[in-house]
Task: structure prediction
Amino acid sequence: MTRILPQTRSAAVNPLKSSQPLGAALAFLGVSSAIPLFHGSQGCTSFALVLLVRHFKEVIPLQTTAMDEVATILGGMGHLEEAILNLKTRTNPKLIGICTTALVETRSEDFARDLSNIKMLRARELAGTEIVLANTPDFDGAIEEGWARAVTAMIQRITLRGEQARQSKKIAILPGWNLTVADIEHLRETVESFGLKAVILPDLSGSLDGTVPDDRWVPTSYGGTTVKDIQELGTAMQCIAIGEHMRRPAEVLQGLTGVPYALFQSLTGLTDTDRFVSLLSSVSGASAPARIRRRRSQLQDALLDGHFHLSGKKIAIAAEPDQLYQLATFFTGMGAEIAAAVTTTGTSKILEKVPAEQVQVGDLGDLEALAAGADLLVTHSHGRQAAERLGIPLMRAGFPIFDRLGSQHRLTTLYQGTRDLIFDVANIFQARQHAPTPQSLDPFRNREVPDDSRPPTFSRH
Result:
């Protein structure tokens, strides 16, 4: 079993993880006409906003309660109420997602009670807007936990309780935070190819896919899952959760509505995708479409082609637990070896299944110390300096990726995404190879030939 090594540093020198509130905000951005609201200082919000804008290259509707010194000491209910009313008046969102920060969490305030009082006192002004609270202190967890807590909170708050009439062709999908916009879009297209309807929560492919609204400025998210879709999740025939961190939201949905769920810890690779396609065939009662079978055949060919480039390579990865598992199983499935594995938190059960001797909870400084001698570094854009110092190529994955365009449109899941991932990695290795030269192939090519015209010399001895 994989050994999980606890964090040894008292401070992160080169941070790997992003905060819980940022993960929750990202999840709320996958809902149509939504605004994430950071309950904390302006600085907390600004830092998260910069990362989101640099990663997606989009306008991000992220707001703050702007806690000051007095509110930090005496309590922030007034700031929270004012922020909610201002957002309602100016933008009229369908959803306001509140993400708490360490600043307010350290006071141990009763946010649920405060929010309940605000809703009761301002019921008329807030009519038509759902307000969801996700407790996401910065000092605990990371982006993965924040995303999961926000999804759980939306289901608990919005989804109608009780057994409901099921729609036989409807599937609820709870994607992990590490799925890109392209992954989610491809996921929907695959489900629909079986004649099924997919309701995805959150759906970043509808809100952060790079489309531009028609000649107007939209102060909220302008696509994604609707509030009505969230309310009616209980009418789905099946729920599919992707990633171990999405187990809790799936369990909550099952407990509230009775909808059964299937958990996929990864959708990258032939085996996991086969299982996913088999489930869709079972639910729909139809065999896999011809184009799905063709993509599977293409992946098989890519596995054969890519094996020669990846087999025996040493890979160093730093990522959130579920993405670490996704990438590590992909590389080992291609014959590579995980030389170093670093993650953000040690609480996820998926870490025990990571195909590595040990997983270090730490930062990018730990990755740099462990990655010496590796053939490839895999982490987000903040790992570029470590890769340069080590002289190792960097494959960018995760969040944030701000020094490359199109990261959200890269496929990494199902047959086509796995195929593309193989090509991306193999091309990195091929670009590092040096073409053979005549000198390298023939070591005697430039040997010195003795000159026979010169008379021999003799020694006196």
Observations:
- The chain is about 40% helix and 15% strand.
